[in-house]
Amino acid sequence: MPIGGLEIGDYTQVGLYVMLWSHSTHKQALASETGISKEKIEYKETKIGKHCFIAGHSVISAGVTIGDGVIVAPMSFVDRDLPDGTVFSNNRRMRDLEKEVRLLKKEVEKLKGR
């Protein structure tokens, strides 16, 4: 039977109540095959790099690859690959603050250039 697999890099911290998925049964449920057939189960390898921090109550979806040095904010649902050094959050306020910080950094760089 195929399995998705889970790889976690050195020095990575995984918080309490984090779910790391390496398979999904949603297609099995949609096909009304729960408990009848395993053919619709999707198995995908999930990888988390080294030196990461995955905060509690977060979910890492099956098949996601997280690069090295990534921080996942609390209560995030990660459904896409994250490159090295990413700070990821599904929290709207956090994303707004990160956008403001990026804009302020650009303004500071412009001022330094004068």
Give me a quick take on this structure.
The chain is of the alpha/beta class.
Provide an overview of this structure.
There is one protein chain. With about 110 residues, the chain is α/β, with parallel strands linked by helices. The protein has one domain: UDP N-Acetylglucosamine Acyltransferase, domain 1, CATH 2.160.10. It has two helices and twelve strands, in the order E-E-E-E-H-E-E-E-E-E-E-E-E-H. The protein has a four-stranded parallel sheet, with no helix packed on it. The longest helix has 21 residues. The protein is elongated, with a radius of gyration of 18 Å. It starts with 5 loop residues before the first strand and ends with a helix. The model has no long low-confidence stretch (mean pLDDT about 90).
Chart the SSEs and their pairings.
Blueprint: E1 6-8, E2 13-14, E3 19-20, E4 23-24, H1 26-30, E5 42-43, E6 46-48, E7 53-54, E8 59-60, E9 65-66, E10 71-72, E11 77-78, E12 87-88, H2 92-112
Parallel strand pairs: 1-6, 2-7, 3-8, 6-9, 7-10, 8-11, 10-12
Antiparallel strand pairs: 4-5
Mean pLDDT over all positions: 91
Q: Report the helical percentage.
A: 10-25%
Oligomer: single chain
Level-2 CATH architecture = 3 Solenoid
Task: List the defining traits of the structure above.
UDP N-Acetylglucosamine Acyltransferase, domain 1, 4-stranded parallel β-sheet, 114 residues, 3-stranded parallel β-sheet, 23% helix, alpha/beta
